[in-house]
Amino acid sequence: MEKQGLQVAIDGPASAGKSTVAKIVAQRFHYIYCDTGAMYRAITWKVLQAGVGLTDEAAVKALLDQITIRFEPGTPEQKVFVDDTEVTLAIRQPDVTNSVSAVSALPAVRAELTERQRQIADAGGIVMDGRDIGSTVLPHAQVKIFLVASVDERAQRRLKDNAAKGIDTPLATLKHEIEERDRKDSTRKVSPLTQAADAIRLDTTSMSIEQVADKIAEIIQKKES
Ligand code: DC
Fold it and tell me: What is the pTM of this model?
């Protein structure tokens, strides 16, 4: 019988390199890649569009129940759709980035997106990145990685990413935003950013993307054999 493929959870703080590395690893193993941060960003985008209060849990949940969030293959990155509207770039804009922590702290939103993420991961052969994948969404994932890097390094990386997308935010602002998001993501009541007890911690501050991807690939190969 053909192997189903593993569930690989990659968690860590903002701009630790999760999505870049997760994409490379998924490609190498022919696994599906699921960016759960994009799902939180997509509902946040919808909330801003609809003019609903960021902390109005009932209204936000009602909105979430009405929309589909889906991914389509694309280069250089997967395309993200809310219903039939492409939001790939819109969800990376500062208005969404600065509102997503509030929306992702709502328990009803987390419960619904966790359910959708479990369905996506159900068949295995998946690399899923986020904040709570190893700890909450996929507690039985065979591979759990927790990526960390210094705030300075993460701000530099976001500066580069942003430049490629035509977003112009000063480095000091990015540093401040990352620190704020770390604080909010780590201190929220439901599923805060936390390393699962059985996750492998990798500090990527002085590692290249390829080195991190190689290390994770090695870990997956060991589990597969
Ligand atoms: O990875 P990112 O920066 O695109 O994530 C956007 C936000 O979504 C982040 O500030 C926290 C939230 N998030 C979350 O709460 N749980 C996840 N599994 C993924 C992201």
Answer: 0.92
Residue pointed to by tokens 């569009």:
49
Nearest Cα residue to atom 5 of ligand 1: 37
Ligand 1 atom, smallest distance to 181 CA: 10
SS3 at position 158: helix
Give residue-wise pLDDT tens across range 190-211: 888 889 999 999 999 999 999 9
Residue 76, preceding bond cis, omega within 30 degrees? yes
Q: What is the architecture, at CATH level 2, of domain 7-224?
A: 3-Layer(aba) Sandwich (3.40)
Token pair, residue 176, equals: 């401040």
Which residues, 6+ apart, have CB-to-CB distance to 101 below 8 Å?
Answer: 180, 181, 184, 185, 188
Ligand 1 atom 16: the closest Cα is on which residue? 131
